[in-house]
Amino acid sequence: MDADGFEVYPIAHNGRVYNIITEMDMTFREVRAMLDWLDARGAFTGGGDPPGPGGLFSCPAEGYFFEVDVQGFEVIVYRREAAR
Q1: Which of 35, 45, 50, 76 meets the CB 3.0–4.6 Å disulfide criterion with 21?
Q2: Which of 28, 36, 29 is nearest to 9 (CA)?
Q3: Do 55 and 42 meet the contact criterion of CB atoms below 8 Å apart?
Q4: Structural domain containing residue 60
């Protein structure tokens, strides 16, 4: 992965602090919806699908799909595309 252009944005949400790592602008609503969706699937506890700590997800949020990689409480957002 080429890290040029990626920034780290810490965000507190529901009693946890996450690092959102991305090169795109995201709204707070998008970020919070994405975190809620990932948390509901166990992405931060290792019980998600895919199983285990860390994994790639296609996450729906606010009319988009976000391609993300979860590593602990770090969420790397690679791509956003409009939901169909």
Answers
A1: 76
A2: 28
A3: no
A4: 7-82
Answer whether 20's CB lies under 8 Å from 52's CB: no
User: Is the predicted pLDDT of residue 49 greater than 60, yes or no?
Assistant: no
Which of helix, strand or coil describes residue 39? Answer: helix
* Cis, peptide link before residue 50, omega less than 30° from 0: yes
- pLDDT tens per residue across span 35-44: 999 999 989 8
Q: How many domains does the chain have?
A: 1
Helix boundaries (H) for 41-76: none
Both structure tokens of 37: 């969706």
- Confirm whether 45 is domain-assigned: yes
In a domain, 22, yes or no: yes
Residue 29 lies in a domain: yes
